[in-house]
Amino acid sequence: NFSFSQLIIMTKELFDKEGLPGFIKVLMTVVESKLLASEIKCKHCNSERLYSHSSQERKVKTTIGTVCLNLARLRCQSCKKTFCPLNQLLDLDKYSRKSRELEKLSLETITNQSFRRSSDVLEDTLGIEIAHTTLHSWFTRSTATIMNVKMKVHSIIADGTGFKKLPDQEGSNRGDIKVMVGLTSKGEVLPFGAWSRASWKDIGRFVKKANHPSEKIKFKPIASTLITDGEDELIRHLKKLATNHQRCLFHMTYELKPLLQYKDIVSKDEAIRLSQALGDIIYINLPEEDADPIKNMEDKLKIEIRLKEIKQKLDDFIKELKMMGYKKSMTFIENSKNQLFTYVENWLKTGTTNSKVTSLVERMMREIKRRIRKIGFSWSEKGAEQMTRLILQQLSSTKEQWDLYW
Prior knowledge:
Layout: H1 4-17, H2 19-37, E1 50-62, E2 65-76, E3 82-83, H3 85-90, H4 100-110, H5 115-126, H6 132-141, E4 155-164, E5 174-183, E6 189-195, H7 200-210, E7 223-228, H8 232-238, E8 242-247, H9 249-262, H10 268-282, H11 297-324, H12 327-336, H13 342-350, H14 359-375, H15 381-395, H16 399-405
Parallel strand pairs: 4-7, 7-8
Antiparallel strand pairs: 1-2, 2-3, 4-5, 5-6
Helix pairs in contact: 1-2, 5-6, 7-8, 9-10, 9-12, 11-12, 14-15
């Protein structure tokens, strides 16, 4: 029995003394009282024979401060087990002392800076004291980075980078992280995963097995095109996942210059000239929008003629390198030429094209390198793998799925 004015005054006093956490505590008390007054069934055996067993105080850290909850515990007369109805209603973890929205914010924060700095940032911005060791514990125990590799995509892009890990038994601190992402026909980026303790052979087998329902039927590739920077082991073990293979055009010109300089002993100016000449040859401008080749025969015919001319120019370029005695560079281009124009051939066949460079994953790799090479070092292999997957979740187009998880 209270008036509206009394409600306003008491609410103001509550906010002045305890703020939002105090208000949430009162709100949960009201919710729990209504819950206990309703018909509750045992979550273990679905029995309605319940009686009060005990109550416990629980402090939960949130982004608005620490909220104190008084949780009533009920006991079932049928199965003799106890449970907290409010835990079940609000989907609270059984023993957790943090809210999921705080854990989500913490994981997003540590992808941008070190654990110590993240602890300071959270304290400065939210006024929450969380030790950097606690953040690290939340990070290592999180299941938010578990990724699903069972999916079909338009293109697969894979790459790798090194990092400094904890020295192994042989004293080596050189680690290697491998990243694989998928690109849909709509341009959405879907991460397959990151691995630091597996070879490309292991990764290829793992992804194939996840997408192969039975050994009795023939495996169908999960992507139209595999896009790589030309690493032999990567191509050898992942090409079975895609119908076609596209060599990154940027890496072709990027890698040709040092190959000319240090293998074929060419001057810097000459190496730059030949690299630019290769770049001018291999790039073809396709229509910006996907088109139906059957309806747009004029564009198709122009591209076919252009492709034929470019392949002839590339053969002439290879012959020129051979005449000059640049054998390493000649072999490099000769071995790659069949995978340089996959993006054009796909457009001619289907009207849709794939990316001709790995710039998409390169941007991700730059962010991964910044976090695991510049901000942090002496990682465990599991820790580097976990952090890389966390970054992939943040940078991919599955941000909605990331939010939905929480």
